[in-house]
Design brief:
Helix content: 25-40%
Strand order of the largest sheet: 7-6-5-8-9
Radius of gyration: 20 Å
CATH superfamily of the largest domain: Aspartate/ornithine carbamoyltransferase
CATH topology of the largest domain: Rossmann fold
CATH architecture of the largest domain: 3-Layer(aba) Sandwich
Shape: globular
Number of domains: 2
Order of helices and strands: HEHEHEHEHEHEEHEHHEHHH
Structural class: alpha/beta
Length: 342
């Protein structure tokens, strides 16, 4: 892996599979009475959030603490940022404190890349979402969920999502989750189709490694996974569709539409869900919906990313025929014994 995780497009197939396999090892920690590893003891990680977040922020904090790192939570509200402090000055303040990694969420697309390449700070940078650009760990946890459900937990080790058909529905224009998933799923061999109103399809989408459709019903019948996206009104400065009812009628997922999906197909959502808009309560609460599972998987994925960046970074090697327990990067995640686990 590289020193930073800024974009899902930066990950090779081997990088991505290594992270997914390592996350399987990390997931086993959640089944223990004491959910902790000593891997990052003595390392300091800052969660630098300039935008509001619930799932991502808590997930990263849980991952960091399970790896025994020292965690500093920074919020733009109530900090010197609200007084006009620049990203550069904030970064140099963190550098003076000697942090080892920065997890950053920022409203400006490209802010994590700027932080990673500016020379302001000598720390690993993990993008936790930047504007409408990228959210790589969300794409990784989505792929992890798909692989577990569609390939299998045990049989999926070392494997990608080749041949799987994934449909992403909704506000693609403003969605960093959609962009990240298209990049990563293509790398993992999946066939991706975007379904959205014409007004919510980005300019230049023809250059993306995916198909585009405006007919949800015809796409559902051939989908292995359907990911519903929230309409991001906070990023909209104009009307992109007539009414909420019209949007829901054409692009919302209800029980009738879900019944058209193949029997093994799953329903996904990055959250937060707007029930009654892009997804009905009946679908959101069904056994086929993986929303809660995605949250749990997010902790495992973020543990894997931080572990590989800071604690066990080995060259990403394809090991499709090699059990994950024998991989050099994951051997270090063996259950700690004695006082180490406390």
């Amino acid at each position: 892996m590289q020193r930073h995780l800024i974009s899902a497009a930066d990950l090779t197939r081997d990088d991505a599979v290594l992270i997914l396999d390592t996350a399987e090892e990390m997931a086993r920690v959640a089944d223990r009475p004491i959910k902790k590893l000593p891997t990052l003891r003595g390392r300091t990680i800052v969660n630098l959030f300039f935008e509001d977040s619930t799932r991502t922020r808590i997930s990263f904090e849980a991952a960091e603490k399970r790896l025994s790192a020292d965690v500093i939570n920074f919020s733009a509200k109530g900090s010197s940022v609200s007084k006009g402090e620049s990203l550069k000055d904030t970064a140099q303040t963190l550098e003076a404190m000697g942090v080892d990694a920065v997890v950053i969420r920022h409203g400006a697309s490209g802010a994590p890349y700027r932080l990673a390449t500016s020379g302001w700070i000598d720390a690993a940078v993990v993008n936790a979402g930047d504007g409408t650009h990228q959210h790589p760990t969300q794409a990784l946890l989505d792929a992890f969920t798909m692989r577990r459900r569609l390939v299998g937990r045990d049989t999926g080790l070392g494997r990608d999502l080749s041949g799987r058909r994934i449909t992403i529905v909704g506000d693609v224009l403003h969605s960093r989750v959609a962009r990240s998933n298209v990049d990563l799923l293509h790398t993992l061999g999946a066939e991706v189709t975007l379904v959205a109103p014409p007004t919510l399809v980005p300019v230049g989408v023809g250059n993306w490694p995916c198909e585009v459709s405006y007919d949800l019903d015809s796409t559902l019948v051939k989908s292995d996974a359907v990911m519903m996206l929230r309409v991001q009104r906070e990023r909209m400065n104009a009307a992109f569709f007539p009414t909420e009812r019209e949007y829901s009628r054409r692009y919302g997922l209800d029980a009738e539409r879900m019944a058209k999906m193949p029997g093994h197909a799953i329903v996904m959502h990055p959250g937060p869900m707007v029930r009654g808009m892009e997804i009905t309560a009946e679908v959101a609460d069904s056994d086929r919906c993986t929303v809660v599972e995605q949250v749990a998987n997010g902790v495992s994925i973020r543990m894997a990313v931080l572990y590989l960046l800071l604690g066990g970074n080995e060259p990403a090697l394809s090991h499709a025929r090699q059990p994950v327990a024998h991989h050099p990067a994951t051997e270090r995640v063996a259950p700690p014994t004695g006082s180490e686990e406390k």
